[in-house]
What we know:
The complex is a heterodimer of chains A (78) and B (181).
Chain A: H1 3-13, H2 36-55, H3 63-74
Helix pairs in contact in A: 1-2
Chain B: H1 8-12, H2 16-33, H3 43-57, H4 69-89, H5 99-104, H6 112-123, H7 127-139, H8 145-151, H9 156-176
Helix pairs in contact in B: 2-3, 2-4, 3-4, 6-9, 7-9, 8-9
Amino acid sequence: MTKDEEDLLVEQVASAYRPKTLDELRYHSAWHDLDAAGRERAFDLARALRPLEAALDEDGLSTTARAVLSKVVSGRTD
Amino acid sequence: MTDLDVHLAAIVAGDTQGFARWLAGAERPVRDSLRSFAAAVDVEAVLQESLLRVWQVAPRFVPDGRPNGLLRLGVRIARNLAVSEVRRTRATPVAASDLEATLSAEPDAPDPLLRTAIAYCRDQLPPKPRQAFDSRLASAGGQDDVELAEALGMKLNTFLQNFTRARQLLVDCLKRKGIAL
């Protein structure tokens, strides 16, 4: 895998999107394609992104918080 | 120190807005508590599931009198779930982070100046990077990047490159304003 390819995988894993599920954890498919260093980069990138997102949200919520609230409101799945 | 338990009564009463206010402060400490698991589990998936479980068990939560009791519970739920994931996937065990050290970091408080600066910098983004950035925000974790890219008429790689560029431009703009993230 080239550095550019890994960068794009890291960018995807750092998003708040995770497949919806009834009763188990669903990993981002791109997470499985990353090595340990890439996964840690994705963690750090998500950690840096969320305050930016929260600052642009009228309620101060990141996309992670919005995703959780969406599951709460919809009863976990749509 | 910010005590997020001020939102506990609302959460127990089933008020999702109260839970949202708790989430705004609790997300970062719970995420940070999972740092040592980052190479072994998908932290974002574990984090979201843990925060959801906090909502589900909150009505049965009994405070111990110390601040941020529900946050402590959230950190424990997240750690236990991460450990279960490590066992399930037979990943290499990781050293657990220190619970008290994690909780010693205060929950984030909104910073109006930071909000203004970030909004200014977002408004300076070129059209395509801004489209990618805004679509991620608007989807709020509800759609994957493939769907977002299609909706914008971009290939996935183009979408991701635009998002990366938006992020880097935002960081550069904030640096010029003396804000380091």
